[in-house]
Amino acid sequence: MTAVVRAHGLGKRFGRRWALSDCTVDIPAGRVVGLVGPNGAGKTTLLRLVVGQLAPTAGDIEVLGAPAGADATLSRVGYVAQSTPVYPGFTVDEHLTLGDRLNPRWDMRVARDRVESAGLDPRQRAGRLSGGHRAQLALTMALAKRPELLVLDEPLTALDPLARREFLQGLMASTAGSDVSVVFSSHLIGDLERICDYLLVLTASRIRLAGDIDDLIASHHLLTGARRDTGWPAGAEVISARHTERQTTLVVRAPRPVDDPTWTVAGISLEDLILAYLKNDAAGVTPLEVAR
Ligand SMILES: Nc1ncnc2c1ncn2[C@@H]1O[C@H](COP(=O)(O)OP(=O)(O)OP(=O)(O)O)[C@@H](O)[C@H]1O
């Protein structure tokens, strides 16, 4: 597997607190990777390590074959931070001119098309744009660089539903048939489901799950049966358990479909799979405890 990001034993500490711990992961090239996790899990920290804005406290990280943040890779990585930074005193058009000067692979046509479709006024100063339009400008700057790796930290939060859909369609159109790899953090699972084919789940500063979404869906199952506190199915790892007075519902990971007549087995949606890992994130807490 060719990896765009290779992290080994990666950790970042702020003061006494580890924002990211012991992260060992290879992010495959040419994929659209969804990064999910609860608030404060360490997603932004991981993304800032990827783009070289932070230096690791422990371990190492390689991006596009070089140490993260290396000069040689800067123009090959596009990044939109959560705050969607722009230059407030520059107009939209001046942003595009600056992008053209600074980036060897800049595509002015992509930039102008996006500005037009997002309804941005080229003469408007960026400092006066609405939050959603500022996000659109920041995304345009990242896409028009024609990066090999595009890193987006919750880019959709400020966009209205229509703009969100159009952005996702635009993103899919610009990634289809190209080699660009995308790492995309979001709390909006429906949006991730629409465009991602690879998933990373980060909870409590650790990677809990990484893999191809189709494989993860195939290896996780939803089991329902009569209420019980023991007697879990053999050969399956219980990820989460929920109980009503009469019924127990499990999310389990098992390489083969669970063959146990005391359970009704069903496929799992991406949303249920992610929620099972998010619920069961506190270290040392058993699935039974977190389910109540
Ligand atoms: N520059 C910093 N200085 C001190 N602590 C920080 C800094 N950046 C992040 N942290 C802490 O590191 C932890 C992880 O933060 P991070 O922003 O990476 O989480 P996140 O998963 O992106 O959260 P959210 O979904 O809320 O954006 C948090 O406890 C946060 O307070």
TrEMBL record:
Transmembrane segments: none
Lineage of the organism: Bacteria, Bacillati, Actinomycetota, Actinomycetes, Micromonosporales
A GO molecular-function descriptor: ATP binding
Stored InterPro entries: AAA+_ATPase (IPR003593), ABC_transporter-like_ATP-bd (IPR003439), ABC_Transporter_VariousFunc (IPR051782), P-loop_NTPase (IPR027417)
Protein name from the UniProt record: ABC-2 type transport system ATP-binding protein
Record PANTHER family: ABC TRANSPORTER ATP-BINDING PROTEIN ALBC-RELATED
Domain ABC transporter: 5-229
Keywords, alphabetical: ATP-binding, Nucleotide-binding, Transport
SUPFAM superfamilies given in the database record: P-loop containing nucleoside triphosphate hydrolases (SSF52540)
